[in-house]
Amino acid sequence: MTAPRTFTVVGNWKMNTLKEDIDKLSSILNTATIFPNTEVVVGCPSCYLEYARQQLPPTIGVAAQNCFKEAKGNFSGEISPAMIQDCGCEWVILGHPERRMLFQECDELIGQKVAHAQKAGLKIVACVCETKADRDEGLTQQVLAAQMESLAASISDWSRVVVAFEALWASNTGVLATPAQVQETMAMIREWLRQNVSNDVADSTRLIYAGSVSSGNCEELARLRDVDGFLVGSAALKPDIVNILKALQLSASIACTARITATLHCIDDE
Ligand code: PGA
Questions:
Q1: The domain containing residue 118 runs over which residues?
Q2: CB of 65 closer than 6 A to ligand 1?
Q3: How far apart are CA 163 and CA 179, in angstroms?
Q4: Is the CB of 117 under 6 A from ligand 1?
Q5: Which partner from 110, 145, 179, 234 sits 20 to 30 angstroms from 266, CA to CA?
Q6: Whose alpha carbon is nearest atom 9 of ligand 1?
Q7: Count H helices, E strands: the chain?
Q8: CATH for 84
């Protein structure tokens, strides 16, 4: 039997933190309750990787938000997996939708980066996404399959990869994906892994959801069968993150209360 998947929350600070912000966020994270079945990683700007690593406890991972596909060379502005490791960090986020959309990173380049980062020994948050047009035109399955295919061709050790799916149309747009939409899409990705990689990989790979996850919707989303955590942007910059880290436990206690209430109703009805 496959071991339960560790609930994973990746707080992506994007290009929003100076040292003083990292100090504040680190003090929030340092005192937050983190349950043993929850893994926490922050996505940090590359110039502050080492600084963030020093501020945070070793139990919280620090990820770069990108890296290049080569070990070293004349690639101005890029950083390598070895540099990330030299700053004491062991994670990288690759293929983030903002890299795909704003910086025109294509599947091929992302695949090359994933292959190199994995060979170098980094753990990877590998992102896939859909746009509003993809969803409106019924292309979700097709676009995710294409992105997954390119990622899968570059991954040799799935145990060191977390797949993040972002519904771009639900990220800071004022529109939220419904739990049913999230579950359906995450199940699609897991099924893709089952059909194209293996049952083991499908059962063991963590699939995390992104799209305006906050303390308001995290408990409901954490209950979904194919959601193993979250990639959090805006809410990762606020004290809100503390509740998101507890989403699995909160959702379990709500489910438990609901079961008890239902049982009591049954007893009342008898
Ligand atoms: P959001 O960002 O939580 O603000 O939607 C998620 C992400 O893009 O990583």
A1: 7-269
A2: no
A3: 18
A4: no
A5: 179
A6: 233
A7: 12, 8
A8: 3.20.20.70
